[in-house]
Amino acid sequence: MKIFITAKGNAIDSIVDPRFGRAEYYVIYDTETGKVIGGKNPHKEGRIAVGISFAQIAIENGVEAAISGNFGPNAFEVLKAAGTKMHRAKEGQTVKEAVESLLSGELEEFREATPREVAEKIEKELK
User: Fold this and answer.
1) CATH fold group of domain 2-126
2) Model pTM?
């Protein structure tokens, strides 16, 4: 299974970024091969549809699950339509810890998007 994780760096030991569309980086972890791919979020500074554009990276890489602190309404709908399960990382977890928590069934699955006003508040706090 491939897992897409928002992160503050592009490595397995990076801390999970609580934002989805405006996350600094992403990490894709393949549970079958152990392969890790990381990259900078090219849409972070966009003006509109950043969640949708960032979600497309996950979808294009064939991920089955995504981990972040929050998923805004647009990203949530795009990932849901693609069949990607979304999970809430625990605050302060590394990418590796979040993956381990997901695989052991410890992470909460998002049933609905983070309300826009909550996502905006988180963004302001992290600036």
Assistant:
1) Nucleotidyltransferase; domain 5 (3.30.420)
2) 0.91
